[in-house]
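Human:
If only I could read backbone structure tokens as easily as an amino acid sequence. I am handing you a single protein, as its sequence and its fold in token form. I hope you can help me see how the letters and the tokens relate. Thank you; the sequence and its tokens follow:
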Amino acid sequence: MADDGDPRDVPWHPRRRHTLIGHEPAENRLLQAINTQKLHHAWIIKGPRGVGKATLAFRLARFLLDQSAPTNVRSLAVPSDSAVSHQVASGSHPDLLVVERAFDPKTKKVRSEIVVADARRAVDLVGLTAAAGGWRIVIVDSADDLNDESANALLKSIEEPPPRCLFLLIAHRPGSLLSTLQSRCVVLPLSPLTTAQTEQVMIEATDGKRELGSFAQLSRGSPGRALELMESKGATAFDAFQRQTRFKPAAIIEIASGFGPRDATSDFTIFFDLLMQWTADWARKAAHDGGGSEMARAHRDISHSIQRTNALNLDRRQTVIDALTLLDEALKAA
């Protein structure tokens, strides 16, 4: 990705991924539908963020767009050196459209939602004859980002689809989608991967050039999350937190030193996402043994502190110090 380009365009973007790990049942279900010529025209691929939903969607798209794909097959794999693979990887296939939040190269920001103009591009595509004479495919990544207007625009095409058109809606929170949209789609669930499977995905995505174990464990079965964490100072700081056996003031200050007073917003968010997850897990585990109240209070107080810091743009370094001090006190009182 260029420094001034779309931050989502990373080397391991799903459109460039050819290996699908840990989701064989989902692929087999799609293969059965293809081999029996009963492939529904609209699917919601649901599951936690980063587990491989988009990878599966692009894998299916490549297979259907590849005019050399045989029938009665046992895999959706298409050779990475095929013409279709190159077109999908570069985002240039004329019969494949990815509907996502738009990136503004001037502001270098991604929109907060998918607007109706983006959805209408899908309507335009399915209204045309396929350039390659085969399928026309729309991947919505993610459907959670549709606003009401764009969702309704997309719904019209899904309700009355032309022949050989396929809609693949990626959803992290499918319950938030329009009920009418959900009712017209087949739901294909994906589950988190094991830590070993997550490591395997990361090794292939990064050529095994990094120490990946801790990031795979922190991701809780989401390779996409693990790859994001791998690039984050926030995850590195959390890993340093986990390695502490005692929270001495010097150690707390050292962990907090990676956060500027009011910068490093993404790293700050990732660090506290992981820290709050750790705190909640600790409190739940202690509650089973009749304790955990101190850690539960720490979780509440840290949550309020994060909200106040973000709302008032306060010193993030000090917020980290305060949070770790609270956790130290809670652990001593437990």
Observations:
- The mean pLDDT is 89.
